[in-house]
Amino acid sequence: MFDVIVIGAGVVGAAIARELSQYDLKILVLEKSVEPGQGTTKANSAVVHAGYDCKAGSLKAKMNVLGNKLYPELAKKLKFPFMQNGSFVIAFDDEEMETLKALYQQGLENGCEQLELWSREKTLQEEPALSSQVRGSLYSALAGVTDPFLACYAFLDQGILNGVELKCEEKVIALEKRGQGLRVLTRKGSYESRYVINAAGLYSDKIANMAGDFDFVIHPTKGEYRMIESKDNPVVKRTIFQTPTKKGKGVLVAMTTHGNYITGPTSRVVDNPECSDVDDEGLAVLDECSKKSVPGLNFMRSIRVFSGVRAKPDTGDFMIYASKNMQGVIHVGGIESPGLASAPAIGLYVKELLEKSGCVLHQKENFIDELPEPVIMHRLSFQEQEKKIRENPKYGKMICRCESVSEGEIVDALHYPCPSRTLDGVKRRVRAGMGRCQGGFCAPRVLEILCRELHLEPTEILKEDQGSFLVTGKLKEDA
After folding, report:
1. Any idea which residues carry the catalytic annotation?
2. Is 406 in contact with 431 (CB distance < 8 Å)?
């Protein structure tokens, strides 16, 4: 019998598990995929929004503003990247300037700090690469960017170190009331718990239906992205948004925590939550919109194009509430943008809902509050690198040339509290395969390390999720 089962190991489920791991609770996280963060968490804008664009009084606004305030300290303690570089919302005409004024007032109502309306001259002085057609901007000093993969892993690493259990490839197929508790049935078995947290992302409405709740419907919304090298591109220091429309925040141009640029997303409702294709039409819209903001973008320096699907609810707001029909279930549904920014605050809110539902929380005396600094060889001085290589020669063997990732770092990724188990899992953990050649050079070597460390055959290693085998057999038997 568990005290709490969290369904979903995306960044929101991970943040909830991390928050609850501070208390004397037996916690289980169930994830349908091979590894955590393989849903919306793996393909989003990586922006920690300030909270001015959420409707005043909404749960989104409350969670976003608080989450934004929590990120700097969490990133410092858990050692994941976070850069508070600020953001602009730019306007191109008088009507859009009026929208910026309304956003500014809405931001003040939401409790956002350090918001300013800037003139055309000041905007272009601060960001000269922007279009000369810009009329003005709304500047937010507190907006930032993070690495959504590493934030998710860090939340889970801390949770697991504090007793949380994680089980992957456990797709939930039913919820049942069982005496004073609940039974969660998966394709592999069943688990009992006093409380269940539904953080199933794109499938959160389906899990809610299992509990007898039909208060919201998820409309999966796909958005294409383009990742671009900063080399031979104009300098853009802050996250650049266009004035939002009814469809959403629009296409952005932003620097990532690793120094490249990301543009996107487009927005299109799709039937399949697993739809991750990229088409010419979507890319054409993406490129046209991003060049409207920064005309000098050089797409010849593109590293990759990809798409992500967001869990857009028909209600227009986050749906975080205790089930009306199955006692002990708490739904965390419809977490679209700004879900990444809101994740730590959602963890706190779920904790409050658990207490209101009768869950007694006792603070752990031996809670592990911080994570150790990961070894990132290319960030170390020459003397520090020498020391690490003396301690472990694997840190001296370069595997990924594009991103300067050593064998030692890849081995570390396979032995974290929340370990990588796939080629893409290693990529997201330590960036081996994330660079210009997209694994063309290092993928066979990473595959070899995975086989050695996990004691598996090449035919058992996956690229990412179920069925994505890299090797199906031998061309010829060894002599």
Report:
1. 49
2. no
